[in-house]
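mind reviewing this stuff:

——
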Amino acid sequence: MRYINANEILPKELVEKLQGFIQGEYIYIPAIKDHHKSWGEVSGFRKEIDRRNNEIINAYSSGSSIQELAEYYCLSVYAIRKIIYSKCHIGVAAELSLLLSPVTIATNLIKKLSGLLYNLHYQAKLGVKNLSLLMKLN
């Protein structure tokens, strides 16, 4: 929505008629119901957001983790999850997941499991160090 001077677009008689109701103030003239544009439609930003969201879904379906996508697109993990699992994209995500080959699915599982195993190993290592430190103190 932008400011437009009434003198620039309206006939003089209509401006004078309006001045009988309001002078020197802003007035909002709503769009006709059938001519209303959705958010981002005029600027094209809606298309840009849809393109980005499709990229996110494709990257996730190709094996990128939610955390990686959050960092790459500078969005929160919650926002990435919302995009991936949103109602408008659930059909696309489901179709893409069906297209994944068993090798891709196995690779993704191995990546996730290796990450979990690394974390468990690291935590166990810390536990042993803390335990040996306690033994030395006693």
